[in-house]
Amino acid sequence: MTIAYETLLSHWLTLHGLFVMLGLSIYVATSHTLHLRRHPSASIAWVVALVLLPYITLPLYLMFGVRKVKSAHSFGGASESATRTSDSDTLATRTQRLASVMALPVASPYHQLNIHEDGTQALQVLRSMIDGAVHTIELSTFVFANDGLGNELASRLKRRAREGIKVRLMVDGIGAYLGGLTDFRSLSDAGVQVVFFVPPLRSSLRGRTNLRNHRKMVVADGEWLWCGGRNLATEYFEGDATSGNPPWIDLSFDLHGALALQTRQQFESDWAFATRGTLPDAVPPINLEPMPGSAIGQLVASGPDQTDDTLYTILVSGFFNSRRRILVVTPYFVPNTTLLMSMALAARRGVRVDLVMPRKSNHLLADLSRHRALRELASAGAHVWFLPRMIHAKAVVIDDELALAGTANLDERSLFLNYELMVAFYERNAVRRFTEWIERQQVSAAPYRAQPPGFWRELAEGLMLWLAFQL
Residue limits of the PLD phosphodiesterase domain (predicted)? Predict the structure, then answer.
């Protein structure tokens, strides 16, 4: 009996050791190959779990632990444009140089920037793009809802596809379920090419289930870009007249020019990844010569397909180097220590820091997790503003020299896990217009008053922060 028990224990220890070695080998290999940088507590948690419970932890790691993947396309490294501006030392040129080091697309000309004042205007532009496209429509979204708004847009896309326009629709694999199971089959039957980005049931063991495509872009004919925080659902545009719920406040914009064509190339890269296909051999050249009246902007793609944490790096660098003002609007604010420190130190240096967000968002976990960071910002002298309505806009303005607008929230999921898309605007008039849009929303906001937390609240906040980014 003793011998049998010892034999069984020996076999179990051997098997356990093999699982531990396999798990740690996979952990080290993926971290090295994909240049994964994790929070120290997350790294320790994964290693301890792999040693103690490798049979459970290894499948979970394969499902949730990898946050970088190989990109289908790279836009290349430093450009001639970045080199030409190397003697200048403005925030715009420093940001362009930093972006070029991270292999982001070169800053490109655009014209006819239109910042949508509200959902009504945003929807009018979107309808015009779909109805006016001559050759192609590329549309990427997180949610395509099965509601009045979603069904109307689906009808327009089907009609254009039947008219011979090449229409491609890419919806996130999780967001497709959140939208209420839109009838995507009827879209396909009408000739719309539909693809789901990383469907969870087909990708659970390939380390991608936790990596969601939050990019929202519509490109018509490679010339006209519509982008911003709005999902394709009623609450982002029109609200619900029946229940009396107003639309969410959100920020979107459209523009023309080479920047739109670069966004189309990003869509092609995402499409190739989602379909496990290849990029077209013939990529149309982009004319980077500015037209009369054009300005310069830069595509900032962030996420698992980027070697660096591009948006996070640009934000931290911009906040640390800010001199006059930081203006942020975001629905969710759960920063990591470094990002929070960069904002707090800016406030302590005398930089005016304004953070605009909803008093109550649509995510309870995010609301519970934000208070520790908000108290630290307030104690550093920053100004936090709560809006009575839900605001879903995402934008950052630094020193009236740089504006970033698009799809990314200031939380760890957006900055480190999601596929996100922002546009950096460097032209002063564009930066001023984004500033004025945020300030118009700020008029109806009330200042945040920090309250010292009790023991149980402090404990709950710590738990929420731990849950916010352990995977």
Answer: 209-236, 387-414
